[in-house]
Design brief:
Oligomer: heterodimer
Helix content of chain A: 25-40%
Distance between the termini of chain B: 36 Å
CATH topology of one domain in chain A: Rossmann fold
Radius of gyration of chain A: 17 Å
Shape of chain A: globular
Largest sheet of chain B: 2 strands, antiparallel
Structural class of chain A: alpha/beta
Order of helices and strands of chain B: HHHHHHHHHHHHHEEHHHHHHHHHHHH
Distance between the termini of chain A: 26 Å
Number of strands of chain B: 2
CATH superfamily of one domain in chain A: P-loop containing nucleotide triphosphate hydrolases
Number of strands of chain A: 9
Helix content of chain B: over 70%
Strand content of chain B: under 5%
CATH class of one domain in chain A: Alpha Beta
CATH architecture of one domain in chain B: Orthogonal Bundle
Strand content of chain A: 15-25%
CATH topology of one domain in chain B: MetI-like fold
Chain lengths: ~220, ~550
């Protein structure tokens, strides 16, 4: 059975973190997003559900600042950030195919964001160890990311995104490409992880089960 | 014994295919090198080299100009590499082809183009040499680095950006380290070319800036210092050998690098800034490639009395030429050099295609005997050796090796195109081998089950597939022969000058009309090179379409 979660009422006092107003984008003559508006409050996990090609990933890229919308505004904590380059936004993104840096070890991947924040080495190693414990891969620091299994790579990608403590985490089909059993197990784990770390997150998926298990609120792309 | 062993080509066929290459390389490469060493190893010559301060200066200049040329080429090349690897736009393929143009141009033409373009004050300066080297070699970086860059997922940079890296930081931390194998490989190729640069330096450097190559030529032909020249050649040979070994090591590391998927990583430029960047860079590339070539043509029409086609008429109408300048006419026939070049190119192409084609088939057939064929690899390496040797050393070696009985062939006109073929054959083999190796052995097995003998199966399958790359190889071979300067300069005789030789001689002589004639020949040689490569590619693509 498919468990469709009731849209969770955001806590009355929770502040709005992310607001999208009238986002439009087209590629050539094809309109991909036409006036998308939505908002996400602190601690909320929202799933964007839609078939492939519905512009879910594009929307995440606009929020992260990797592409610019043709029209519309992205607000973070009430301030428009459309002119802000990606690296100043403090928005994390877990890519569909992980995009781990192949020339760096697991630890070097996870600490990348901390290095960008100029955190001292000791603090970085401590945080890496914590995150590796959290994702169930303790002692993986020195591994080459090219040697990781599919499930391990997905976990490391999540840890890398969480490490610099972004204001909001975007997840772009983070669990596709795994076999059924591993997929279901990781779905549960990911939901637990995000809730326990009180992470505000937007998850993009085409899988209703996955959306229902992880997210507190499901938004269909066609309703936006 | 497996079925594949049973059905393989008879041994005598393989031996027969390998024989021409072995004889050819043995006679025209190995023997000259042996002769060179034999000639070089005298105590007298060694003493001279060790105590010759001017040689040390030449070595030092050769090394540093090559290092700076390489660094500049890499920096300049990364920009178009990025543009072509990351963006999809109208004319992208055309632009890629355009960037390759300088690389297929003969070095003498590149030298002449910058002699035409640069102001007097920069003629015969180091700057002119460096700029010409960058122009000539930039395609190596664009092709090499751009090829890898287009395979890197752009999201890797995106990931770095979302983790707080600025564009510049993401470039330094992610893109450049991942491109490092390709950058190193291209850089070592550019270094090799710049280190052994001869045509460009002869034309642009003048006597004040000799590289090792120019020094070998000067000592051997101008100063009659054959022993010293031979030792310098051997030194050059050793340096290049080490560089090639290092290059091979980098390449094997390259192959072991991360698995990359060829996916659609190019996208259209979005927004005003990106579109303006793409447009500006595209225009800049067209201007950078086009300006020296335009200057070449412009100077071919320039005389003291303004612009006219005097020089073109002088080159293509013999009568006028003889009366106009009797001194030059007695030793140099510009139009004749065109026909000499065409004749030599025809011979060199035929020889390198036949020898290279047979050798490729032999190499592939040998490695089929079980995958680990030492013989096949040895043959492959042997054919490649001339590529890792400077053209000047080859020319000098041939001159020394064939100057004593019973091999006194110095004056044989065939020696020049055979030298060209020696340089061109490795290219034919390199173009052929990947195609031949990619033939699924099961195709041949299938043919055997339908009653084809191994020889028949091989003729039906391998020979058919070979046609297209063979045409590409032929185009390369013809272009190489037309532009060859380093080896030819040792073997040329009066009345038998090729186009590059004639160009260099005309540009080195005083007189505006003679210079204009040199530029006429350089323009003709550039056009001829395009036509040759284009024609063979055209025939090839016709074949691709029909097949």
């Amino acid at each position: 059975m498919i468990a469709v979660a009731e849209p969770a009422e955001p806590a009355a006092d929770a502040p709005t973190i992310l607001t999208l107003r009238g986002i439009c984008i087209g590629f050539g003559s094809r309109t991909v997003l036409d006036g998308v508006s939505m908002s996400v409050t602190e601690g909320e996990i929202v799933a964007l559900l839609g078939p492939s090609g519905s512009g879910k990933s594009t929307l995440l890229r606009i929020i992260a600042g990797l592409i610019r919308a043709d029209r519309g505004t992205v607000e973070l904590d009430g301030r428009p950030i459309d002119g802000l380059p990606t690296h100043r936004r403090n928005i994390g993104l877990v890519f569909q195919d992980e995009q781990l840096f192949p020339h760096r070890t697991v630890a070097q991947n996870i600490e990348f964001g901390l290095r960008m924040q100029r955190r001292p080495g000791a603090e970085r190693s401590q945080r890496v160890a914590e995150l590796l414990a959290l994702i169930g891969l303790p002692g993986f620091e020195g591994r080459r990311v090219t040697d990781l299994s599919g499930g391990e790579a997905k976990r490391v990608a999540l840890a890398r995104t969480l490490a610099p403590a972004p204001r909001i985490v975007l997840l772009d089909e983070p669990l596709t490409g795994l076999d059924r059993e591993l997929h279901d197990q990781l779905t549960l784990e990911l939901g637990r992880l995000l809730r326990e770390s009180r992470t505000t997150a937007v998850l993009v998926t085409h899988d209703r089960d996955e959306a229902a298990t992880i997210a507190g609120r499901i938004v269909r792309m066609e309703d936006l | 014994m497996s079925a594949r062993d049973l059905n393989r080509l008879p041994r005598w066929t393989i031996a027969a295919l390998a024989a021409p290459a072995i004889v050819f390389v043995g006679l025209f490469y190995a023997w000259p090198v042996v002769a060179l060493i034999h000639r070089a190893v005298t105590a007298e010559a060694f003493r001279t080299v060790v105590h010759d301060a001017s040689l040390r200066r030449v070595l030092w200049f050769t090394a540093w100009q090559a290092a700076i040329s390489t660094a500049a080429t890499v920096v300049v090349g990364l920009v178009p590499a990025w543009l072509l690897a990351r963006y999809e736009f109208v004319g992208r393929r055309w632009l890629t082809a355009l960037i390759t143009v300088p690389f297929v141009l003969p070095t003498v033409v590149v030298g002449a183009a910058f002699l035409a373009l640069l102001p007097r004050s920069l003629d015969q300066s180091v700057v002119a040499i460096l700029v010409a080297h960058v122009f000539f070699n930039v395609a190596v970086v664009v092709r090499g680095v751009g090829g890898l860059w287009s395979l890197l997922p752009p999201d890797l940079v995106g990931a770095a950006r979302t983790l707080g890296a600025s564009p510049w930081r993401a470039m330094r931390e992610v893109t450049l380290p991942l491109l490092a194998p390709a950058i190193e490989a291209s850089a070592s190729v550019v270094f090799l070319f710049s280190f052994t640069s001869f045509g460009v330096v002869r034309i642009l450097g003048g006597p004040s800036h000799p590289t090792l190559e120019v020094e070998i030529w000067q000592r051997a032909t101008r100063l009659g210092d054959v022993g010293v020249a031979a030792i310098v050649s051997i030194i050059q040979l050793v340096v290049l050998g080490l560089a090639v070994l290092w290059f091979a090591r980098i390449q094997s590391r390259h192959r072991a690098a991360i698995g990359l998927r060829p996916v659609a990583n190019r996208r259209a430029a979005r927004g005003r800034i990106e579109r303006a960047t793409v447009a500006t860079l595209s225009v800049a590339i067209v201007v950078a490639v086009g300006t020296p070539l335009a200057a070449l043509f412009e100077r071919s029409t320039r005389t003291n009395a303004g612009h006219s086609l005097v020089a073109w008429r002088a080159v293509f109408g013999r009568q006028q030429l003889a009366s106009a300048r009797p001194t030059a006419a007695s030793s140099l026939d510009p139009l004749g050099s065109l026909f000499t070049s065409l004749r030599f190119a025809a011979v060199a192409t035929a020889v390198s295609v036949v020898i290279g084609g047979c050798a490729s088939l032999a190499i592939v057939a040998m490695s089929r005997t079980g995958g680990r064929s030492r013989l096949g690899r040895a043959l492959d390496t042997g054919i490649m050796l001339p590529l890792g040797t400077s053209a000047v050393t080859i020319g000098f070696g041939v001159l020394v090796g064939f100057s004593v009985a019973p091999l006194d062939w110095r004056a044989a006109p065939l020696l020049i195109p055979l030298g060209h073929a020696l340089v061109a054959t490795p290219f034919v083999v390199r173009v052929l081998l990947p195609t031949l190796r990619s033939i699924d052995p099961r195709l041949r097995d299938a043919a055997s089950t339908m009653g084809a003998s191994p020889l028949r199966a091989w003729r039906e399958i391998d020979m058919r597939v070979m046609v297209a790359p063979l045409l590409t190889g032929a185009g390369f071979a013809a272009a190489i022969s037309l532009g060859e300067f380093g080896a030819t300069t040792f073997l040329t005789r009066q009345g038998r000058a090729t186009l590059p030789i004639a160009i260099e001689q005309l540009l080195a002589r005083p007189g505006a009309v003679l210079h204009a004639e040199g530029y006429v020949l350089a323009t003709v040689l550039a056009l001829l090179t395009f036509v040759v490569i284009g024609a063979f590619e055209g025939v090839r693509s016709l074949g691709d379409r029909s097949g």
